[in-house]
Amino acid sequence: MEKKNEALKEKSTENICKLTVEDACKLLDTNANGLTSEEAKRRQQKYGRNIISEKKDKSPILVFLSNFTGLMAILLWTGGIIAFVADMPQLGIAIWMVNIINGIFSYWQEHRAGKATEALKKMLPSYTRVIRDGQEQQILAEDLVPGDIMLIEEGDKISADARLIASSDLQVNQSTLTGESNPVRKAYDPVLREGLSRFEIPNLIFAGTSVSSGTGKAVIISTGMSTEFGKIADLTQTLKEEKSPLEKELDKLTKQISIIAISAGVIFFAAAVFFVRQPLAQAFIFSLGMVVAFIPEGLLPTVTLSLAMAVQRMAKEHALVKKLSAVETLGCTSVICSDKTGTLTQNEMTVSNLWLLDQEFEVTGLGYAPEGKIIAGQQEVSAANNGDLKLLLTAAALCSNARVIPPKEESERYTVLGDPTEACLGVVAKKAGIDVDEQSTLTPRLRELPFDSRRKRMSTIHQLEKPVEGCRRIAYIKGSPKEVLELCTGIHRQNRREELTDEQRARIMEANDKYARNGLRVLAVAYRLMSQKDNLPAALSAYTPELVERDMTFIGLVVMADPPRPEVAAAVEKCHKANIRIIMITGDYGLTAESIAKRIGIVKGEHPRIISGTELGNMSDEELKEALKDEVIFARVAPEQKYRVVSNLQEMGHVVAVTGDGVNDSPALKKADIGVAMGISGTDVAKEAADMILTDDNFASIVRAIEEGRAVYNNIRKFILYILNSNTPEALPSAAFLFSRGGIPLPLTVMQILLIDLGTDMLPALGLGTELPEKGIMDRPPRTQRETLLNRHIVIKGFFWYGLIESVIALGAYFFVNMLNGWPNVPLASSGVIYRQATTMTLAAIVFCQIGMVLNCRTERQSVFKVGLFGNRTIMRGIIFELLLISLIIYVPFLQEIFQTAPIGINEWLFLIVLPPLIVFVEEVRKAISRRYFKIIRK
Ligand code: ATP
């Protein structure tokens, strides 16, 4: 039934492209005022939500079972079988149990990591602007229904299939559907031509595509799985996720260690058979113990989990990371290319000054509340008694799209829908007593040439109430003063147009520079009366910027303040300490950029080099690289030029993070190692191209994310170091047994090795993945991407330094029991209770050393007491679990049988209790020495 309805609907809308706008709306039972909220609700019940239903995940059972088929698992299964064959059923069962526990543990960690990333996806909702109940509203894209009137503009992702009912220079990128990456022109006129494929029809737009430029209004035809995108969604959902560099590195690491482990196993096997003459099965089990001792099982899932947890922490700090792999790259970031407006500054524009050739004004009041005065000298001025001022403010306000929404309740603030630069223009007009709504009714807008960061300006064309100098239409333009002034041939003074002289041009730029030097943002406003004589095309849709934006008459300057974000200066300072460079790349004027850059400490020198977009265009790559070695600011650049800066920095060996918000920023965002899109002001296209999205548009959030990125990598290192520590004490007792040709009875059995690796070590290790960024982590230079997880430092520290200390202690514990029982006067016990007590002590000593070690691994250089010795709850829980487990193994008879243990006495316990503080003490001394030494070399 449902299917039939869909088919019917599709049939009836198949020819919608041929209808007029009115008929198309009628067919979908809607009109220019949009649906009512009730109707929208009713339709949602009928057609469902506008979502592409997710393809079913892999069967959880298969995912679960995949944890039991890895190299390590197969070894253990085989080991279990051999134990059974060799008539050691208890050992066989135990080995299998260990395997099962390990599998469940890995599955649980992966599951948690998966849940965390899934939650993250939900944090990126997509919104759409629609007209409902006759008003423009922003709704969740999934709430769109057929018949909704949707508004689109440059950078928007299109969320449903729709028929255009209005458009202005609209171009759409349909590459997701057609593979063709050049933007396609779209227009609302009926299409009668036959033989076009659906995607070629100019008045149809499709879900999953995006707006490259222009604006439009469209009526929704179909949503969710009935859209063209929904129909092919199956294909895209089968795309495989790439492994991240860290995952690849870990794979490699696990393989390398496995090879070491298996080689050690083979050597031990051969030695056991030929040197000690052990039976084959026993020798195999023995060497299996060695292999297990070395293989870092649980490494991958723990790493994935700690990445996922970092991603969750970052999300709370306003940085949404789209891929886990981005976290690690963040840690290596050595340059951040940041734009200015909104990222370093608050993007809360307030007009502070107005400038006409003959008069300057100050504007009082802060924010978007229309409360404040326009003052010239000491006197309050209003638009009513100053024609030039009225024209300046009316033109600026009418050439804007943003709306200011008054507070809904007492406590709420004024909010902005649209571009803040435009919003403040409406506010200042109101302060001067201009009724903007009335003005836009008197001179209705006919056409818009939208703002474009390459042109750095925007124009609108209006119908005049009555002809002026024989002209019926007027174009208003506002934009960057340099760009606008280049188009002006006249100046408006004392209510009339004069020719613009060079001297006047110079005065205008002088005024612009004066404001810019104080970090203010300046827009120039101009107009052009359009007459029949201008030979403009008849159809408004044929107007282009080249035809309209010329021969303009300059009116004045509007000056706005956009203060730096208060937290940015500290974040910049942090970056400098961390040897991370910040390069400002802005579309704004050089002097404004320089002033802001100095204020927040991005540049320190008196005269940093400012490279303009034009200059950059004329530079060779070599010259650019040379310039990038010093302090530099890029100003008045087009977004496309960011790409060049990023790729040159990368060629210089940097790991680059770059911010962006517009469609044209996408190439740079994709090229960068970390593309950062703005969550509030960013377009959907930029968000899609980015690796990370800032939900507060704030530069400081990037720096916090870098800090997390560094911390995660360090945590993984801490984790690896911790599990390596216990490898040597696990292997050395067996070596002692072998090389003494059995003279030293085996101090640690295979079952006991398994217990340490897969039982007691696991949970505390997990806690290391949750450590918070260490103090001083941002006082070091970034790690290079070449640096590997398992470096010489870790190998020496893990295997040789702590490994040997632990081995000596473990063997010491073994001999301690024997000594208490008469050794060396009697031979070392090789069976019976004393032997069991001795092996129990070797095992327990390693476990107790590892308790101290996990606390040591929490910090790299800082004293662990600084972060609170017991501060990590996951680790503390792990330690308690570990203590419980070892006590059970020592005291529960059935476990004693499996693990070959025996109860120990008070002397033995005293020996054990001393170990964790001893291990912590030794490491604290090492850290203190390393801190001092480190300081000396830094000086
Ligand atoms: P950043 O690149 O740091 O975000 P920006 O906002 O100044 O700074 P663009 O958005 O590329 O960069 O704008 C370039 C210039 O265009 C601005 O400096 C300003 O002079 C002008 N401009 C910005 N917004 C508008 C607008 N809505 N209408 C007209 N001109 C604008």
Which helices and strands, and how do they pair?
Layout: H1 2-13, H2 21-27, H3 37-47, H4 60-65, H5 71-85, H6 89-122, E1 127-132, E2 135-140, E3 149-153, E4 161-173, H7 175-178, E5 184-185, E6 204-205, E7 210-222, H8 228-237, H9 245-275, H10 280-294, H11 299-316, E8 319-321, H12 324-332, E9 335-338, E10 350-356, E11 359-363, E12 374-376, E13 379-381, H13 387-398, E14 403-405, E15 415-417, H14 420-431, H15 436-442, E16 445-452, E17 457-468, E18 471-479, H16 481-485, E19 488-493, E20 496-499, H17 502-517, E21 521-530, H18 545-548, E22 552-561, H19 568-577, E23 581-585, H20 590-599, E24 609-612, H21 613-618, H22 621-628, E25 632-635, H23 639-651, E26 656-660, H24 666-671, E27 674-678, H25 684-689, E28 692-694, H26 699-725, H27 727-739, H28 750-760, H29 762-768, H30 792-820, H31 832-857, H32 873-891, H33 893-899, H34 906-938
Parallel strand pairs: 9-23, 9-26, 19-22, 23-25, 24-25, 26-27, 27-28
Antiparallel strand pairs: 1-2, 1-3, 3-7, 4-5, 4-6, 4-7, 8-28, 10-11, 10-22, 11-12, 12-13, 14-15, 16-17, 17-18, 18-21, 19-20, 21-22
